Automatic annotation (TrEMBL):
Location of the P-type ATPase A domain: 116-217
Signal peptide interval: none
Family recorded in the similarity comment: Belongs to the cation transport ATPase (P-type) (TC 3.A.3) family. Type IB subfamily.
Record protein name field: Cd(2+)-exporting ATPase
E.C. number(s) listed in UniProt: 7.2.2.21
Catalytic reaction equation(s): Cd(2+)(in) + ATP + H2O = Cd(2+)(out) + ADP + phosphate + H(+)
Alphabetized Gene3D superfamilies for the sequence: Calcium-transporting ATPase, cytoplasmic domain N, Calcium-transporting ATPase, cytoplasmic transduction domain A, HAD superfamily/HAD-like
InterPro entries noted in UniProt: ATPase_P-typ_cyto_dom_N, ATPase_P-typ_P_site, ATPase_P-typ_TM_dom_sf, ATPase_P-typ_transduc_dom_A_sf, ATPase_P-type_domA, Cation_Transport_ATPase_IB, HAD-like_sf, HAD_sf
């Protein structure tokens, strides 16, 4: 019965409104008896869903707004103020309806994401036939076909074909990505142009798209300290209002005044003001490829005054290339590269993987070589035995630790390469220095503008911590105008530095790639991960995840957090100001029950509409990036 009443609450609202109109018309024709009958029926019908919610709250030992309205309406009926009892119940239900509708709009970004979720997939059988199946039936290892205009149903790897793929649902990036064989694709992306066959690697709830939806849903339920305070405040405020209204009646002997006081003091706008701002802000972030994990994270992020960055893959593009291979032995360069690349297959580091890719690009079949022993030494490099050769690959610290001498000529050569913006990787074979590999990475195109934007929004210090050599770090730091940089750090040393900053009173946000920098990200007040497509580690360890690997998204997220907290404060001020003004008006006999209720419900809508401004929030740098993306998209289409 209760479920049916709640299900038809909107219809109850409109019936109540119709009966009030009928009562007004009856009064115009001097049919007072009929008019009162319509008003009483309207009150009885509309009070039912209000009474149900009040009773449910009482069972949970909380004092709700509905309880205040219920008491006030019963009192109005008792003193035969049928017009006010009917109007108050109707306005309350109407306000509830409009509030629900506008809240739906603030959650529009999440709804858009859910609507984008693929429902079907085209399964390719071994005999070449195709079958359209439900998305829930897809299993890991299935070979799937994606046709032009189709949604990619799972996370997977392309095994045939090439295409332009719109990954906006994942990254917020409007420019289609050009994908070919061996490239990864993500569920929820749309194939703009081309044809591909993929092998399913992650299906169902394990896909990146499903995790994004889950994270945004959780974030919108998570509460900031302001929201938690207002929840506690409402539990004390509501019974306090009942007691105050009894005092008003005791002193004035005016039941009508006491009832009016009771209704007008309802904290509706106050209770909803902060949550609706948080939901709208988180929704804006999701729409723009930024996952902010809750109102409490948003609140803390807004207070950040110190930014700490890793270099490779964060300030730089994370797509380094080998710029020089300096062979110091008589061994053929191709064989030497093959041995080193095979050893580097154990490394997850960007630089190690770059050497592996360089060997593959040169047509070297690494499967022909065998590793018998291996060790990845965090922050320094790797050691391995490949086909009987003892290989050490890494930085100067590692060479010194393994007793491999670097002569003055090799040292000068490495320094020259580093000053030119390269990272020098030293290679030792059987205890002797064998090669120096130069690897360069480009600074992100939007890095300088993004950092300037964040400085303008209140960041006081920007620091770079990197395991790379001092010369390369200095070149990047100077280019980006860093306040300070620290090079050749191990992961635990980055953690210690972040702790030191916090001990000094700084509120620190640490940005890294979500894997090597996970400890430092977890230590900072706000951990931010950059990982294209959102790696599992980045999505789990970080407070904020940038899905498109763009620093302009970081600047947007920081500005958005400040705008959201500012919006929360505006809403709280509006709600308190309206309640205070109305109560003073009630005590001065200038505000009456129906009119006060109308203004009260209006204040609820005002705070919701104010919060909805956040849905369209856009920073200058994000707008500029959007224009650039638009021009690039036009070129691709052309």
């Amino acid at each position: 019965m209760i479920a049916k009443i709640n299900q038809h609450k909107n219809q109850i609202t409109w019936i109540s409104g119709t009966l009030i109109i009928a009562a007004i018309l009856s009064k115009l024709f001097h049919l007072s008896g009929l008019s009162n009958s319509f008003l009483i029926i309207a009150t009885v019908i509309a009070i039912v869903p209000i009474a149900i919610k009040a009773w449910q709250a009482m069972i949970m030992r909380t004092f709700s707004i509905e309880l205040l309205v219920f008491i006030a309406v019963i009192g109005a009926v008792f003193i035969q103020e049928y017009t006010e009892s009917a109007v108050v119940t109707f306005l309350f239900l109407l306000g509830d309806y409009l509030e629900a509708r506008t809240l739906e709009k603030t959650r529009s970004s999440l709804k858009e994401l859910v609507d984008m979720a693929p429902q079907e997939a085209i399964l390719l059988h071994a005999d070449g036939s195709r079958e359209e199946i439900d998305i829930d039936l897809v299993e890991e290892g299935n070979r799937l076909v994606v046709l032009p205009g189709g949604k990619i149903p799972v996370d997977g790897r392309i095994v045939k074909g090439h295409a332009l793929i719109n990954e906006a649902a994942i990254t917020g990036e409007s420019i289609p990505a050009n994908k070919a064989e061996n490239d990864r694709v993500y569920s929820g992306s749309i194939l703009d142009n081309g044809y591909i066959e993929i092998i399913a690697e992650k299906v169902g709830e394990d896909t990146t798209f499903a995790k994004i939806i889950e994270l945004v849903e959780e974030a919108q339920e998570s509460k900031s300290s302001a929201e938690r305070f207002l929840d506690r405040f409402a539990n004390y405020y509501t019974p306090a209002v009942v007691i105050l209204s009894l005092f008003v009646f005791a002193f004035t002997r005016d039941l009508h005044l006491a009832i009016t006081f009771l209704v007008i003091a309802c904290p509706g706008a106050l209770v909803i003001g902060a949550p609706v701002s948080a939901v709208a802000g988180i929704g804006n972030g999701a729409k723009n490829g930024v996952l902010i994990k809750g109102g409490d994270i948003m609140e803390k992020f807004a207070k950040v005054d110190t930014l700490v960055f890793d270099k490779t893959g964060t300030l730089t593009k994370g797509k380094p290339t080998v710029t020089d291979f300096h062979n110091l032995t008589s061994m053929p360069t191709r064989k030497l590269l093959a041995l080193i690349a095979k050893a580097e297959t154990i490394s997850e580091h960007h630089l190690g993987q770059t050497i592996v890719k360089e060997a593959e690009k040169n047509g070297i079949d690494l499967s022909r070589f065998q590793i018998t022993e291996s060790e990845a030494i965090k922050g320094n490099g790797i050691t391995a035995t490949v086909d009987g050769y003892s290989i050490v690959a890494g930085n100067r610290k590692l060479m010194n630790g393994k007793g491999i001498k670097i002569n003055s000529g090799a040292s000068l050569y490495a320094i020259e390469r580093e000053k030119a913006g390269n990272t020098a990787i030293f290679i030792g074979i059987n205890g002797e220095l064998a090669a120096i590999i130069s690897i360069a990475d480009q600074i992100r195109d939007d890095a300088k503008a993004a950092l300037a934007d964040m400085r303008a929004n209140g960041v006081k210090r920007i620091i770079m911590l990197t395991g790379d050599n001092r010369h390369t770090a200095e070149a990047v730091a100077n280019e980006l105008g860093m306040d300070e940089f620290h090079a050749e750090l191990l992961p635990n040393e980055k953690v210690e530095y972040v702790k030191k900053l916090k001990d000094q009173g700084a509120i620190v946000a640490m940005a890294g790639d979500g894997i090597n920098d996970a400890p430092a990200i977890a230590t900072a007040d706000i951990g931010l991960a950059m990982g294209e497509g959102g790696t599992d580690v980045s999505m789990e360890t970080a407070d904020v995840v940038l899905m498109a690997d763009k620093l302009s998204q970081y600047a947007h997220a920081f500005a958005l957090s400040k705008a959201t907290i500012r919006n929360m404060r505006q809403n709280i001020f509006i709600a308190l100001a309206v309640v205070v003004i109305l109560l003073l008006g009630v005590l001065a006999d200038q505000v009456h029950l129906a009119g006060g209720m109308f203004i009260h419900e209006g204040s609820v809508l005002v705070v919701i509409l104010n919060a909805m401004r956040l849905i369209g929030f856009k920073t200058k740098i994000a707008s500029e990036a959007g224009k650039t993306d638009g021009r690039q998209r036009e070129k691709l289409v052309a």
